[in-house]
Amino acid sequence: MGTIVGCSREEPSATTNSDRAPVGYKAIAAMNASAAEKADRSVRTMSQEDKIGQLMCIGLEGTTFDESQKELVRKYRVGGIVLDNDNMESKEQVRAFTKGIRDTANTSSLMMPFIAMNRERMQYRPNLMLPWTDSKLLSKQGLDAVSSLATRTAIEMRDLGFNLNLGVMVNTHSFYSYTSDVDRAARIGETITKHYAANRVFTAYQYFPGGGDYTVPGMKIDASKASLMDDDGRVFAQLIDATRDQHPMIMVNAVKVPSIDANHPVSLSKPIITDWLRNELGFDGVVMTDDIEVGAAIAGMSIEDYAVRTINAGSDMVILCKHAKHIKAVHDALTQAVADGTISEARLDESVRRIMLMKFSNDR
C-alpha cells in the first residue's frame, strides 16, 4: 500500500495497484529484494486459492509424473510434494519425475513447490543413492563424518531434483536417534542442516517436543515441561538459535504430552506449537505435520477437521500421502474454513509468509 504522509496529495493508487497485481514466482524470485520483501510481495499478490495450496504437501503415486499427476498439482496448487521409496527406481527416472514437477509449476504460474524426501529413511539402492550410515555409528564416528555424509547426500539430493530433506532426527529417545546425549544431538542436527543448506537443500527436524520414541504412533509422553526442557526440548532450543539463518522446518506429530495439553496431540495443540515452540522458544520458521492421514486416525477425527485444527494450532503445512480423495477433501476443508472465518485470513497469511520466506531464502 502507498503511504500517506501528513495531508500530502500524493497519488498512491498506481503504486497500490502495481503492488497488488498478480506476479509469478519466477518474477518475484528475480526481484532485487530480500527474501523477506519477496515473501511479503507474494502474500500481497497471491490468490486465496494459491495461499491455501501452499499449506499442503502431498504424496504422489507411481514412478512417472503423468497427466493425472500434473492435473492434481495444477488444480490444488500445492506447496510441496514428497516422494518415497515407491516413487523411485533410478537416477534418470527420479530426475525426470522432479523435472516434470518443476516444469509444471513454471508453465502453470504456480509457486514453486518444495520437492521432498525423508533421506534418512530411504532404502539403499546402489543405482540411486548412497547408503545412509547407521545413526548411532555415525554419531560415534564424530562430526567430521557427519559433515562429510551430509555434504555428499545433499549434493546427491540436489542432483536428483530435491530441495527438502524431511528427516533430521534430533530426538534422543527414538530407535533412529543419533545419540542419547542432548548437546551432542543438537550439534549433529546443526551440522547436518548447515551442510545441507550450503548445498541448497532445506531440512526438517523431527519431532517437537521429543521426550519419547516418536516412531510409536499415538504414544503418550509422561514428562513435565521442565523435564522436557532438560531433555529434547533443549535440543530444539539450541537448534532454533544455531540454525535460524538456514530456515529449517520443525515437524510435529500425533503423540500426546498430557502435562502440557491433556486434550490434544502435539499436532493439534496451540499451547505446545504456538505458546511454547513459537512464543517461548522463538521459532519463527515453518511447522509441518507428519502424515495427517495417520494423525487423524489416531485422534479419532476426520482428516478434514484434523487439517483445519492443526493450522489453527500453529502448524503451517500438512503432509498428505498419496490419496487423491483426501487431497481434495483437505483442500476443500481448508478453503471452507477460510471462507467462514474458522481460519482467519491473518492466520492464513502468517503461514504463507513463513513458507514463502523459506522458499525465497537462497531460492532453492
Give the CATH class: Alpha Beta
Q: How much helicity do the residues have?
A: 40-55%
Helix count equals 16
CATH fold-level assignment: TIM Barrel
Whole-number count of domains? 1
Strand portion: 5-15%
Poorly predicted residue ranges: 1-18
Largest sheet: 8 strands, parallel, barrel
Task: Please tag this protein with its features.
beta-N-acetylhexosaminidase, beta-N-acetylhexosaminidase activity, hydrolase, disordered N terminus, 16 helices, 364 residues, globular, 49% helix, Glyco_hydro_3_N, single chain, 8-stranded parallel barrel, TIM Barrel, alpha/beta
Structure summary:
Helices cover 49% and strands 10% of the residues. By secondary structure, it is α/β, with parallel strands linked by helices.
